Amino acid sequence: MNNLIECQQVSYHYNSGKIKTPVLEALNLSISSGESIAILGQSGCGKSTLLNLLGGMSQPSKGKVHLNGTNLGQLSEDKITELRAQHLGFVYQFHHLLKDFSALDNVAMPLLIRGDDKQVALTSAGELLSKVGLKDRLDHRPAELSGGERQRVAIARALITQPSCLLADEPTGNLDAKNAADVLGLMIELNQAQNSALVMVTHDKKIAQKMQRILILENGQLSES
Questions:
Q1: Residue partners of 181: CB distance under 8 A and separation at least 6
Q2: pLDDT bracket for residue 1 (50, 70, 90)
Q3: What 8-state DSSP symbol labels residue 223?
Q4: Residue 192, CB half-sphere, CA atoms under 13 Å: how many?
Q5: Among the CATH numbers 3.40.50.300, 3.20.20.210, 3.40.50.720, 3.90.226.10, which is that of 3-224?
């Protein structure tokens, strides 16, 4: 398998005046198409920071992050945004849906932003929402949906562009046990169906055990569980 995302000796620290607070230290990571990875670690250990680096939303203090063979550190912000739109989807603990738009419009939005035909975008969004069990909720706004339904919309929105990799930050953290299990199963199912990579930050060992690989982030380093 080819490496879709690769971190080479990545370090990251926060600056507070003259004080540097290290978060990640000379970290290496390779992510291949089709695999699922859970990243476990204590609160504040840098899991979300790592996800932001993988997604090109932050740049490492040292080291390199490659996305589809391209060093993100050598690109302008516009080029990073373009590459991210081509290859990555994001799901967060909070759904971040646009409250004044329907589920259908929320899911179609990434296609409309990149300039796809409106009717084609809406048709694709409707098909994907049907796949995640929301064919009867297309015209509902977020406030009219349950927590589990909102997260399903967020997953559909992340997958509508058929990204090479889905980055998920505690995507079931606000859901009850049943909805969490349903959402997790859905993400794994779609990950396998599309042969996309799935990288999930979580604190839940039961969720992590559903992934093909479990990585522990501790003292700025990753280790296989």
A1: none
A2: very low
A3: E
A4: 8
A5: 3.40.50.300
